Description:
By secondary structure, the protein is of the alpha/beta class. It folds into two domains: about 190 residues, 2-enoyl-CoA Hydratase, Chain A, domain 1, CATH 3.90.226; about 45 residues, Lyase 2-enoyl-coa Hydratase, Chain  A, domain 2. The protein is about 50% helix and about 15% strand. The strands form two sheets. It has a six-stranded mixed β-sheet with strand order 1-2-3-4-6-9, with helices on both faces. The protein has a three-stranded mixed β-sheet with strand order 5-7-8. Helix 1 links the parallel strand 2 and strand 3. The longest helix has 19 residues. The radius of gyration is 19 Å and the shape is globular.
Amino acid sequence: xxSIDASGPIAQVRLQRPDKRNAISDAFIAQIHTCxxxxxxxxxxxxxxxxxxxxxxxxDLSEMGERSVAEGIAHSRAWHAAFDAIQSGRVPxxxxxxxxxxGGGLELASACHIxxxxxxxYYGLPEGQRGxxxxxxxxxxxxxxxxxxxxxxxxxxxxxxxxxxxxxxGLSQYVVPAGEGLARASELAARIAxxxxxxxxxxxxxxxxxxxxxxxxxLFVEALMSSITQAExxxxxxxxxxxxxxxxxxxx
Length: 252
């Protein structure tokens, strides 16, 4: 259900349940968790995509069954663990979105660090119409991207958002024509893979935490992270290369 090519610095991870619109089953979520916990040391960026016409249609409702409250909590926490392994893992993750990005699929996308949406992409949170609530971390992640009011609207009314509006409100950072998402994501991944690993780590892990802190505490953590990254041998060599004219300038 998950295909993985981790033979180079850019790992290609693809959801492979096209007949189910890449709906996430219990076995599928376990595979996702295992994959992101065990990326080879050589991998510096992951590109996550979906096979077929859709990125991910969310929870496989055929497996929902009659869970007890305790079983439901354990199920939700399994999703949390898998998506935390993406958001708080070792390397940045770029999601390539197309077709349906709904329910748990949107929760999965929101755990990634950069989202490239093809023009066919549409977003939805149908849990409100199914009589259930998000359980894969959406209530914690999506309001930070689009605000609580927009998420409330999507869940209460079943509103579906297209690719262009999704970019404007923060569901993606890029919109590209249909069929061009993987190429754009691979281009971005190559840039990111060329960065100093500690710098990438700081952006992934320190930046979101600083944004949640009061300003004084945030500035102190920023000073610490700035000093740590500057002290890395890789950073010192990159600064020397810039000063010596051996590195490209911004926008070049």
